[in-house]
Amino acid sequence: MILDFFENSINLKNIPRQGWRDKLSMKHPESVSDHSYSVAIMCMVISDMQNLNSEKILKMALLHDLAESQIGDFTPDQIDKEEKKKIENTAFEKITKYLPEEIKIKYLEIWADYQENISEESKIVHQIDKLEMALQAKKYQKEGYDKEKLQQFFDSAKEEITNSQLKELFIQIINEK
Prior knowledge:
By secondary structure, the chain is mainly alpha-helical. It has helices at about 1-10, 20-25, 30-50, 55-65, 70, 80-95, 100-115, 120-140, 145-160, 165-175.
């Protein structure tokens, strides 16, 4: 039964990031797995630099998009935020259903924390998620994708990033040639 959990995580490799497809008409954008890995790497470094709970942050980063292995990657244009949360919660519970009870409970707590975005850890993961998106948008810009179409991704990140260190990194991304 634990293999079901692992198979869901592997399926993230097959889920394209929908925003890049919709907004840039990309045929082969990064996968959700690509994105999640980058978020986890960034979370590892930032949490260590800021002396935060790295274990919790890394687990949260690795779990933050896992529900998409079942439901796909929805953009804000496609679905209401509360409806998306409901669908994701149902999928996440299904994905973790057969994990050992003590592990399942821990993951459900981390998931709920991320969904509610109340703790310091969840706030930093949400902001790093946006920072990673901005970094990926800059990469696509360097590859020749339209800067005007990419601007909405930069604007979204700018609006969400409040941590001073992450803001500084965001400014570096924007100003990079």
